[in-house]
């Protein structure tokens, strides 16, 4: 699909508390081996979309570090490209660091004559989305813009999201936000827009105060410009909007073999990520491990239960890790018992023996601390 | 200016004694250690010796191996001055020939070497398991002024008659080479690793090619001829972990040596220098189920263990289903162990399927192959 350009918009309105204090959500560790952005990038790649730009808001070093070799995600890195776009003016003047300004500053990516359609998506929704199908539905609709939504019976897990009223002709009647828990159509912050319309809007944007970012542009489109097509997405979706949700959704995966299978065992739909030279996991003779996801390079001599363990972690003999998420290069020494803990990279647990959070309020330990 | 060394890896062997495992792939491409293939070890050793140009001589079932070697990016041979090329027998002006012996394989690729114009050529076998760098050996070769240096390892006297045995003087200069002697006079075995000064090698190969009675083998022809010509050949003493995995028994035993309880420190730390590089699969982290038992194992990412894995090496994408039990076995990628099945002391080939309830090798006396 070389007539499609995808923008992964990292100006997303959600953070995971302390976890995303020094890094963007996009490069935050997920499910032991991945970063959030791997899902959007892999979905695009699997959909045959090879022109991808990442609109980075801040902490872009972390994004560069993760994406590094762009060949990881592209079918053909010569005919396609993966660029990380930065709004340099926005660095000096954060008020103007918006996704719209980022696109405007880097609008050369829109000059490619082959590109007719632009996908704007994000990294906070974890879903298995076939963008090819979305673009096809968009073209079939004859509309200039399509928004992608998910119908839910109960919207409390999506309280920070925009919601749509969709009529029986699949057009968006209204776009709104509320805190109510009810049946709703959740906007997945994913849209397809004709490039010609996007270019028009970018020219206008400096004059229209109601259009300061992509989110407000969407509202402006629905309310004033054109009839907007709505495309329903029916697959698995999780929206990561808080540290508590991050903890809950991650560990939920361990008890949901159906989703594990849907996400990770489809030979036609691979999730790509940076690769490492870590060895396979070593389980010592006294290791005791159950219901856990464990990444390579880890050495386990102790007990691990209901947990997600990232790369190159050490769990010494006599240590217990329970209901916890452990990031790379962390060490849990003999005699330490972790329960409901999120341990960031290169943390060492050795002095305090019992480290307990609760299921609803996990304890978070930042990168590199010694506990 | 630094001296240029080019590595040539002999990887054409059929490995008949590995039976069905090498039915469709060459021995160097056989899986090892959950994540690796046998040739990863030689190629990584070359990379870790700062040698950037490498030829891989393939013959038997070269397709899988050539595909795996690719442009050598897995081992970093795709850098600015890097090159890694699969060299299968090819048609020339003089006709088309298979490689008739190890020396003939190099002789037929003199064009490749002439293009590179090396000072020294390192010749290796692609089917040994060990971690090293060749720098000390090359330094010894250069400082001694020898035409050839052979890496040797002390083997138990009772096994010496299975190897090519070298006799040396007090300076470790080689005085005699005997292939598989009935009454060995030394226990220094050739490891099939040679450093040659290129000019001397070129001359020896050209002369050997003219000899209709030669079997064109380094051990049987080139080395004895050089010794007969009173050329200086040095022995380089290697110590440490080194295994030939040419039989099912030795392949199984070498895999079992990777288990944490074996304490083989000089091989098991694959990710420490000299790092063993390998292609990292795009698999999810491994999943260990609620009722799983994992003791003393090495398990690669992408594996799913719902039953029991005891003293075993388990590769990526292997499924050990509920109530299945795998004991003292090496399970290659993609194999499925059905519900309630029992497997002991086995090598389970890639993508092999063991049916629900099936029992393999209950008495566990001999190593069995399921492929």
* Fourth CATH level, the homologous superfamily of the largest domain in chain B: Spore Coat Polysaccharide Biosynthesis Protein SpsA, Chain A
Number of β-strand runs of chain B = 30
The overall pLDDT average of chain A reads 93
Biggest sheet details of chain A: 9 strands, mixed
Q: Tell me how many strands of chain A there are.
A: 28
Radius of gyration of chain B, taken over Cα atoms and rounded to an integer in Å: 22 Å
Structural class of chain A: alpha/beta
Helix content of chain A: 10-25%
Largest beta sheet of chain B, briefly? 9 strands, mixed
CATH superfamily descriptor of the largest domain in chain A: Spore Coat Polysaccharide Biosynthesis Protein SpsA, Chain A
Query: Which of globular, elongated, flat, extended, rod-shaped describes the shape of chain B?
Result: globular
Distance between the termini of chain A: 50 Å
CATH architecture of the largest domain in chain B: Alpha-Beta Complex
Question: What keyword list fits this structure?
Answer:
heterodimer; A: 371 residues; Spore Coat Polysaccharide Biosynthesis Protein SpsA, Chain A; UDP N-Acetylglucosamine Acyltransferase, domain 1; 2 domains; 9 helices; B: Spore Coat Polysaccharide Biosynthesis Protein SpsA, Chain A; 5-stranded parallel sheet; 30 strands; globular
């Amino acid at each position: 699909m070389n007539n499609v350009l995808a923008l992964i918009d990292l100006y997303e309105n959600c953070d995971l508390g302390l976890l995303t204090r020094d890094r963007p959500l996009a490069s935050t560790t997920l499910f032991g081996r991945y970063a959030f952005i791997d899902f959007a990038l892999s979905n695009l790649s699997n959909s045959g979309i090879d022109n991808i730009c990442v609109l980075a808001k801040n902490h872009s070093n972390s994004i560069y570090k993760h994406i590094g070799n762009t060949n990881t995600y592209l079918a053909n890195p010569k005919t396609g490209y993966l660029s990380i776009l930065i709004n340099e003016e926005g660095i000096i003047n954060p008020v103007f660091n918006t996704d719209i300004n980022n696109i405007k500053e880097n609008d050369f990516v829109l000059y490619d004559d082959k590109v007719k359609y632009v996908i704007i998506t994000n990294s906070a929704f974890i879903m298995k989305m076939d963008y090819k199908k979305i673009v096809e539905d968009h073209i079939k609709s004859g509309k200039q813009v399509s928004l992608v939504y998910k119908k839910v019976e109960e919207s409390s897990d999506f309280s920070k999201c925009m919601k749509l009223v969709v009529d029986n002709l699949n057009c968006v009647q209204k776009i709104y936000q509320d805190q109510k828990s009810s049946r709703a159509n959740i906007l997945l912050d994913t849209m397809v827009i004709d490039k010609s319309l996007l270019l028009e809007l970018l020219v206008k944007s400096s004059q229209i105060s109601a259009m300061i970012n992509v989110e407000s542009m969407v509202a402006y489109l629905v309310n004033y410009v054109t009839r907007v097509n709505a495309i329903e997405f029916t697959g698995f979706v999780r929206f990561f909007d808080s540290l508590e949700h991050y903890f809950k959704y991650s560990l939920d995966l361990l008890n949901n073999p159906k989703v594990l299978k849907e996400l990770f065992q489809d030979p036609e739909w691979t999730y790509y990520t940076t690769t490492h030279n870590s060895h396979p996991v070593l389980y010592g003779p006294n290791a005791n491990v159950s219901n856990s996801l464990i990444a390579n390079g880890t050495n386990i001599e102790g007990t691990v239960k209901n947990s997600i363990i990232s790369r190159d972690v050490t769990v010494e003999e006599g240590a217990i890790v329970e209901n916890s998420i452990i990031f790379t290069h962390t060490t849990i020494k003999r005699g330490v018992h972790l329960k409901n803990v999120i341990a960031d990279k290169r943390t060492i647990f050795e002095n305090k023996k019992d480290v307990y959070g609760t299921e609803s309020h996990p304890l978070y330990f930042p990168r590199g601390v010694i506990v | 200016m630094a001296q240029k060394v080019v590595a040539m890896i002999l990887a054409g062997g059929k490995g008949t004694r590995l039976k069905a495992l090498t039915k469709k792939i060459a021995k160097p491409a056989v899986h090892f250690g959950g994540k690796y293939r046998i040739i990863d070890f030689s190629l990584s050793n070359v990379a870790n010796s700062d040698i950037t140009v490498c030829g891989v001589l393939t013959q038997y079932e070269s397709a899988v191996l050539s595909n795996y070697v690719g442009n050598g990016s897995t081992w970093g041979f795709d850098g600015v001055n890097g090159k890694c090329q699969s060299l299968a027998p090819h048609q020339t002006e003089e006709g088309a020939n298979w490689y008739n012996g190890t020396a003939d394989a190099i002789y037929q690729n003199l064009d490749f070497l002439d293009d590179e114009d090396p000072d020294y050529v390192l010749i290796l076998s692609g089917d040994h398991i060990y971690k090293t760098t060749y720098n000390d050996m090359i330094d010894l070769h250069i400082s001694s002024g020898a035409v050839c240096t052979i890496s040797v390892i002390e083997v138990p006297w009772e096994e010496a008659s299975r190897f090519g045995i070298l006799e040396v003087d007090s300076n470790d200069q080689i005085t005699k080479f005997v292939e598989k002697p009935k009454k060995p006079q030394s226990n220094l075995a050739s490891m099939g690793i040679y450093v040659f000064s290129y000019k001397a090698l070129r001359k020896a190969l050209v002369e050997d090619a003219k000899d209709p009675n030669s079997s064109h083998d380094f051990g049987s022809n080139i080395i004895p001829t050089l010794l007969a010509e009173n050329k200086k050949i040095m022995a380089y003493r290697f110590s440490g972990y080194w295994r030939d995995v040419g039989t099912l028994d030795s392949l199984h035993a070498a895999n079992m040596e990777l288990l944490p309880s074996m304490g083989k420190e000089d091989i098991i730390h694959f990710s420490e220098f000299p790092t063993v590089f390998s292609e990292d699969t795009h698999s999810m982290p491994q999943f260990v189920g609620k009722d799983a038992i994992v003791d003393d194992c090495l398990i690669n990412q992408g594996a799913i263990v719902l039953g029991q894995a005891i003293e075993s090496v388990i590769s990526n994408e292997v499924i050990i289903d509920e109530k299945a039990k795998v004991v003292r076995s090496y399970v290659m990628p993609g194999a499925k162990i059905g519900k309630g099945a029992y497997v002991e002391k086995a090598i389970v080939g890639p993508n092999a399927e063991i049916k629900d309830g099936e029992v393999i090798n209950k008495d566990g006396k001999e190593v069995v192959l399921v492929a």
